[in-house]
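User: Let's play a game. I give you a shape written as tokens, and you guess the letters that built it. Ready? Here's round one.
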């Protein structure tokens, strides 16, 4: 897949032009592109972002759900080996199936919210409905360590991985829904840091649980409930996905 990216690079260099330089961009389209009001170019520091509940809603969602993805990345091969006796040379195909599921979910999650918006739903309702659907699709993962069939376990994990990516696709767009463009990168960075901290914690937690119990039951229970908790936190902090007013003297 790495070398194939050079093909995309060649196509991009051949086709990409700035709108004002593109031969297929009409005068009307160019006027529409430039019709947005001018925004301040000043990038707000973290000190101006952290007091806003919108920042904590995104960071909280990342803190609670990113660790589950790291759990899938690092521990599922060990689970398949312990629970189903797969050797290293046999793990490849089940892992490929899980990641193909996750690829599909990453696209489907965005399609759900986009379709709802096109049908007249508010951005708030569309994003959270899509996230709720994904959170519910994760729930069957709690049975992954209780099924005897390898492929039933793989399909449960694959469904959860797909749902994670669908949830994440909508979570990642919340900063652009709630913040001006000049702040989106910083908010995403704060959330990424929160997710990384959660990822460090889950590695310790799963390791200790396996040492104490020898079972993946607790980690899968955590994985199953994390997304509903994350959505609850987001709903509590930003029930209407309100815009963060960075220029206001007081934080909302």
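Assistant: Ready! My guess for every position:
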């Amino acid at each position: 897949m790495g070398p194939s990216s050079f093909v995309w690079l060649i196509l991009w260099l051949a086709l990409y032009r700035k709108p004002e330089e593109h031969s297929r961009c009409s005068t009307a389209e160019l006027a529409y592109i430039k019709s947005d009001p001018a925004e301040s170019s000043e990038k707000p520091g973290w000190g101006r972002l952290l007091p806003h509940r919108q920042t904590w809603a995104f960071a909280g969602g990342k803190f609670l759900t990113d660790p589950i993805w790291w759990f899938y990345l690092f521990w599922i091969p060990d689970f398949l080996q312990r629970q189903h006796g797969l050797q290293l040379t046999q793990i490849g195909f089940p892992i490929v199936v899980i990641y193909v599921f996750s690829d599909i979910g990453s696209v489907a999650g965005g399609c759900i919210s986009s379709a709802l918006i096109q049908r007249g739903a508010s951005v708030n309702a569309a994003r959270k409905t899509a996230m709720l659907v994904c959170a519910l699709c994760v729930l069957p993962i709690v049975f992954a360590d209780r099924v005897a069939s390898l492929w039933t376990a793989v399909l449960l994990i694959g469904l959860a991985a797909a749902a994670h990516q669908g949830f994440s696709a909508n979570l990642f767009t919340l900063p652009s829904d709630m913040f001006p463009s000049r702040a989106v990168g910083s908010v995403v960075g704060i959330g990424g840091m929160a997710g990384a901290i959660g990822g460090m914690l889950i590695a310790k937690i799963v390791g200790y649980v396996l040492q104490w119990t020898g079972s993946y039951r607790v980690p899968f229970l955590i994985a199953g409930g994390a997304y509903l908790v994350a959505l609850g936190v987001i709903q509590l902090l930003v029930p209407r996905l309100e815009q963060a007013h960075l220029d206001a003297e007081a934080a909302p």
